[in-house]
Structures are given as structure tokens and as C-alpha cells.
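Ticket closed. Logging final result for Proline hydroxylase.
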Amino acid sequence: MADTSIEQARSLASRGQAVSAVALLEAAGSAGNAQAWMQLAVWRLAGAPLPRDLVAARTALRRAVEIGHVDGALMEIALSANGNGNTDAPDWSSAVALLDRAMGDPVAAAQRALLDEMALAADGVPLLLPKGEVLSAAPRIVHYPAFLTPRECAHVASVGAELLEPAQVIDPRTSRLVPHPIRTSDGGAIGPTREDLVIRALNLRIAAASGTRVEQGEPLTILRYSPGQEYRRHLDTIAGAQNQRIRTVLIYLNQGFGGGETQFPLLGLTIQPRGGDAIVFDTLVSDGAPDTRSLHAGAPVTAGAKWLATRWIRAAPIDPWTIRGA
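Final structure:
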């Protein structure tokens, strides 16, 4: 019956009957259906098919958690930490307190154990960073060895694994998703509702290493390259973007595969992937134009699978709910 109510609500919403859909979900939620409250929360957070309403979203999410929705509890923790769904600023301490309350859940316990291994300030910002090695002055490319621990790499890969799908891009002529013309990997972005406290702490680490605010980063994207897959030569900037990508952070999540080197052909620079290492490089010149010297490629993988985490950083804070495209 619960699933039927949600399916009916989704059908109503798809036909433009949002008011009726909300009424149906609220009735089901009041009758004890936690998933109905979760559906309302997701709609209100995403801004579709209902207008975005952070207060209503968090209210619905809290009701789902009170009924006992475990995934809802983890989502509430993520949103408390990153502020995407808060009426106030990100609140790391409240998120950690919520995590501690959920310690009966093995997923929450595993996340807490990883956090305990990190040297973090009270707001989740790293107290220490590995020392970087400058590989190129112009464009600036910095290599950070052991940027992530093996356990952190495994966590990022596990969170991203269920999000993987063939790389796609929006066709500007039709506005439809089509196969990516130069990237043949599988990928997925860890959006605000999945940004658990470990991922949040790592995004704060990325911000510190790149000298930017965490709000400037696009959702952390996980890429998996199987044999024969590659990312051909490209720039990370977006043509015509009002809020341009200024910096890229690449984190290698594993090693032991064949091929997959990161190549900067105009600089004669090739970087051999090593699990846990990170590369941070600039994508613009001083006047804000794309730096063509940052042209780079991910060489074809010849054996095994290459796992990579990428965070593209914009000039100004972004809305992670609407970041697709420019």
C-alpha cells in the first residue's frame, strides 16, 4: 500500500497535479509511511516537481527520521553538514552529533571510525595537509602524495560505485543527453544528499589544498575507467559559462592497473597514477580566459580498472542542485 501511494503521487506530479500529489503523500506520511515523507523531502530539496522549500524539506525529512527511516537519518546528517537544505549555514558540530546518535547503524559507525582517523578542526576543516610538489609553474600544477589514505579512497569509491553510469553530455542542439564524445568512462556525482561526513571532510580538504571555498566546488565526481576507456585531450573550462571553472582537483583512488596516465601534452608532462595521490591545476590565465596549456588527457586503461575522483572548482559558489552544464 505504501509503495502504491508513492507511485500514485509520482504519477500525479508527472501530470502536473502537484497539489494532489502532496496531499496524497502527506496523508500517507501521517499514517506512518516514512518513505512518503522522504519523497516529499527530496522533491522540496530538488525543486522539482515542487518549488524548492528548504523549511518544508527538512520538516518532511525529520518526520521520516522520527518514524525510523535510516537513509533519511544519513541524509539529514549530510545536509546539516553541507548546508544544502539548511535554513542557516552548514553546521558541522550538529551533523556530528546526529551521526553519534545514529551509531547503532553500521554505516554511521563506519563513517565515525573514519572521521576519528582524521585531524579536523571543530568545523571539519583539516588541521594538516600533505606537502605539495609543484610540477609546473604556468599553468600551476601541484602534486600531493598520499592526499587520501587507503581507507578514505575505498570509502569514496564505495559511495560513488552505485552512482556510476556511462558518461553523457547535453547535446546543445537537442538538449538531450548523448554519449560523451571524448570521455568513455563510467561516472557519477556525489550530490548534497549523499555527501556524508567523510565525503564532506574530504571536500573541505580539497578546498584547503586548492585555496578555494568548499562552496565553489562542483559535487565530487567518481570516474571508473575499464580497459580501453579513456578521456581524450580536453580543457576543463566550459564554453560560455558565466561562473567558469578555475581549478581542477584529480584524486587517484587506486593503482595496480595498466595505462591510465594523466598527460599534459603541451607541457610534456605525464603523471603516473598512484592510489591516494592528488593533482591540483589551474585552468585559466590571469585575464580569465581558458589556459590552453592545461590541455590534458587520461590515457587509455590497458588492464584492470582505474578509479578517479574529480572536483571541478568554479570562480564563485555554485548551486549543487542545478550545476548541470554552465
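The domain at 133-314 is CATH 2.60.120.620 (Jelly Rolls). No further action required.
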